[in-house]
Design a protein that fits this description.
7-stranded antiparallel sheet; globular; single chain
Length: about 220
C-alpha cells in the first residue's frame, strides 16, 4: 500500500527543519549504501547519526504520531533510521529496495518507509519518487510539507533531477505488524469503521468490525 499524507507538518515546522538543515554540511549518499547500490545511489545526505537529526527526527515523529492515517497504516513500533537527502542536477537513485535491517549495532527491522518533501515541486525538475509495479511505474512529486509512506520492500527509485534541488526527510520505522498484507487489512478495517461511526442501524456492523480488527491485531502484533 502506498499512502500520501498531505500537509504532514505545519509551515512553522517546515521553516524550522529547513533552518536546521541549512546549518549542516552534507555527505555523499553512497556512504550508507551497500556495495550493490553504490552505482545506483547518487545523492547527498545528512546521516541519521548526525546530532541535528535528533531534533529533526523528534519533530517528524511527533507529526507522524498525530496523523491518524499514518498510525493506522504503519502501526509503528519504533524508528529504525532517519536522514535528510538532497538531490541536485544530475543526481538520482536507481531502482532499489531499502535495507531490511538498520540502525547498527541495534539492528532494527525496517517495515515502513516514508519520504517528507521539503521543497515545492515547481522549484525543481525531475526527482519524482517512482514505484515499480507489474504495469509500469507510478510516480509521485508532492508539495512541500506532504509525505508518502509505503512498504519498505517495495521496489522504487528517485528519477534524475534535471534542475533545482530536491530536499526531503527520509525515514524508516519498524511496525508492530510485520506483514504488509496484514497491515493493509487492518487499515481497511479501520477506514470501514470510521465510515460507519454515527450511522443509524450500523451498531452491529461496528461491533463485528471492531472484533475482527482487534483479534487480527492480537494475532499478528509483535510488541
Amino acid at each position: 500500500m502506498i499512502l500520501t499524507l498531505p500537509e504532514l507538518i505545519t509551515p512553522e515546522e517546515l521553516t524550522l527543519v529547513k533552518q536546521l538543515v541549512a546549518g549542516v554540511g552534507f555527505t555523499e549518499g553512497k556512504s550508507t549504501a551497500g556495495e550493490l547500490l553504490h552505482k545506483a545511489k547518487n545523492n547527498q545526505q545528512i546521516p541519521w547519526d548526525h546530532p541535528v537529526m535528533k531534533k529533526i527526527a523528534g519533530l517528524v515523529m511527533q507529526a507522524l504520531g498525530r496523523n491518524d492515517a499514518f498510525m493506522g497504516a504503519a502501526q509503528p513500533r519504533r524508528l529504525a533510521a532517519m536522514l535528510v537527502s538532497r538531490y541536485q542536477p544530475g543526481m538520482a537513485y536507481g531502482l532499489h529496495v531499502d535495507a531490511p535491517i538498520m540502525a547498527e549495532p541495534n539492528h532494527v527491522r525496517s517495515d515502513v518507509s516514508f519520504t517528507l518533501f521539503l521543497n515545492e515541486p515547481d522549484t525543481y525538475e525531475g526527482g519524482e519518487l517512482a514505484f515499480e509495479s507489474g504495469s509500469g511505474e507510478t510516480a509521485f512529486k508532492l508539495p512541500a510539507r506532504s509525505a508518502i509512506c509505503y512498504s519498505t520492500g517495495q521496489l522504487h527509485r528517485v528519477r534524475p533531477v534535471e534542475s533545482g534541488e530536491r530536499l526531503a526527510v527520509v525515514g524508516w520505522v519498524q511496525s508492530l505488524v510485520r506483514e504488509p498484507a496484514v497491515r493493509e487489512i487492518l487499515y481497511d478495517l479501520s477506514e470501514a469503521r470510521e465510515q460507519l461511526v454515527g450511522k443509524e442501524g450500523c451498531e452491529r456492523a461496528l461491533e463485528l468490525i471492531n472484533k475482527s480488527y482487534f483479534n487480527l491485531l492480537r494475532r499478528h502484533a509483535e510488541p
